[in-house]
Amino acid sequence: MIPPAFEYLRPKTIPEAIALLEQHGDEAKIISGGQSLIPMMKLRLARPGFLVDINRIPNLDYVKEEDGFLKIGALAREADLHKSELIKSKYPILRDTVAVIADPQVRNLATLAGNLAHGDPANDHPATMLALGASIVATGPHGERVVPVAEFFLSLFSTALEPNEVLTELRIPIPPDGSGGAYVKVERKVSDFATAAVAAQLTLDSSGTVTYAGIGVTNVGPKPLKAKPAEEFLIGKKPDDTTFTHAAQLASEDCEPSADLRGPAEYKRGLVKELTRRALALAAQRAGSKESK
Amino acid sequence: MAKTELVRIKVNGRDREAPAEPRLLLVHFIRDLLQLTGTHIGCDTSNCGACTVILDGKTVKSCTMFAVQADGAEILTIEGVASKEGKFHPLQEGFKEEHGLQCGFCTPGMILSSYALLKENPRPSEDEIRWGISGNLCRCTGYKNIVKAVQYAANKMAQGA
């Protein structure tokens, strides 16, 4: 399958990329990893007249802690995140997520920023970013603005990113001591979208009480779901099985799955309940363990 | 036709160049313009990994990248895996000895994914091998003999070192 014709533009800096977006408006599309965009172009689901390739812009592939945040640049690849010692030791929820995205070849090119900017509720990172309380940095002609991921996804394939903005960075607040998280996914086979998946992040205080709970759910509605009632319920509770089972019930009531080849809606709702319980249990275990929090 | 751009790539150690329309996929550039047809097109939808090549040291699916994006890159295809004198690489030998192929269609991609895996991890466990080739589908042998072929190569390469 040959994608439709387009004009190829290769800016060397972010301001240059923004100027190209300004010039070509709705007709232009950013390409980073291209692992979602190129398949969509082949299927004519996307037909950009201009492709703005940001891959040659230097210094955008960083993964670093700075000013209280884990900052991930637009060109950090999934494979880079998987190899990062920092992610391995401090952000197990993110490592879980990267490990179940697509396959090795795709992870060598695909970026976390692109995974979010694509706005597909079937993608894995949105749920994890919701659980972590992350924000994105959108850079446009008038500078940067920071948008919480909880406000970023508007509907299917639609985000708060303006046509003249580039998603340049992702910011995750550094979790305090006593934090842990997990991403649990059910997929039919490697590189399939999730039948359902749940991201859970917890912080426990010294008495073992939950002081922060973040839960995101993948592919059970028109946009990634932040399971607010479940999160609120968990605050101030002890992390035990009864509490997690109730929170899981709340999350499953919150989602709006639809039937497809991966199963009927009720099955998916049941899956969300069980996956939420498992993700919370693993998150709590990691929050309590000194080796892998 | 949209305007073309000259794409320069070092393929299997040799500098090559050809003009490409921006929408030309890397796999078509390799097969049709450079006439290196060992890189296969399987699903054409980024699922099967038959078109896997190694670009600047990393495996990519050449059906899901534009040739213009690869300008200036170094690429290894299956044609560059054996020695210049035509001696099989231990992976090629392993696939032959352990019956790691039947129809052979997935084999170039399988070998390149395994090649990248062994560069990074010269003594992988069975699980690590399966993880390393998880982006490559085989529809005839199953994976058992492919895993054995990679183990064969890892052992052979360890002895050679």
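The CA atoms of residues 129 and 178 of chain A lie 19 Å apart.
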